Amino acid sequence: MVLYNVTVKINNDVREEWLQWMRKVHIPHVMATGSFLSYRISRLVSLEDADGTTYAFQYLCQDMATLHHYQVYQSPELQKEHADRYRDQFVAFRTVLEILEEGIGNQVN
């Protein structure tokens, strides 16, 4: 499994409208590509910044081949739509993490 992480710092002046747009428009479009099994939205709480708020969007993908297909053929249009809509109001970077192990609850060996 692969975790595709998109970290975005958004200007506080547009934060609420942007987050609503992300939830109602952008994420549904990303999920509609069929490339991802699930997603998670998180907000950084350890970093206080008067200029913006930082969020992490994590998308779970079956394998690197599926993620590569998304990045080459589907992501550019989705990223452009976001960039055009929120020009000069955000910074973003993307990382890919390989999931080595998952656990739930109090597992002690």
Q: Overview of this structure, please?
A:
The protein has 109 residues and is an alpha+beta fold. It has one domain: Alpha-Beta Plaits (2-Layer Sandwich), CATH 3.30.70. The chain has helices at residues 15-32, 64-85, and strands at residues 2-11, 36-43, 52-61, 90-98. A four-stranded antiparallel β-sheet has the order 2-3-1-4, covered by helices on one side. A hairpin with an 8-residue loop joins strand 2 (36-43) and strand 3. The two termini are 24 Å apart. The mean pLDDT is 94.
Outline type: globular
Q: What proportion strand?
A: 25-35%
Could you state the order of secondary-structure elements as H and E? EHEEHE
What is the architecture at the second tier of CATH?
2-Layer Sandwich
Number of helices: 2
Number of domains: 1
The largest sheet, given as strand count, sense and whether it forms a barrel, is: 4 strands, antiparallel
Secondary structural class? alpha+beta
**Can you give the mean pLDDT?**
94
Any low-confidence stretches, pLDDT <50, length ≥5? Answer: none
Spatial strand arrangement across the major sheet: 2-3-1-4
CATH fold-type name: Alpha-Beta Plaits
The value of Rg in angstroms is 15 Å
Q: Helix content range of the residues, please? A: 25-40%
Number of strands: 4
End-to-end Cα distance, whole Å, is: 24 Å
CATH class: Alpha Beta
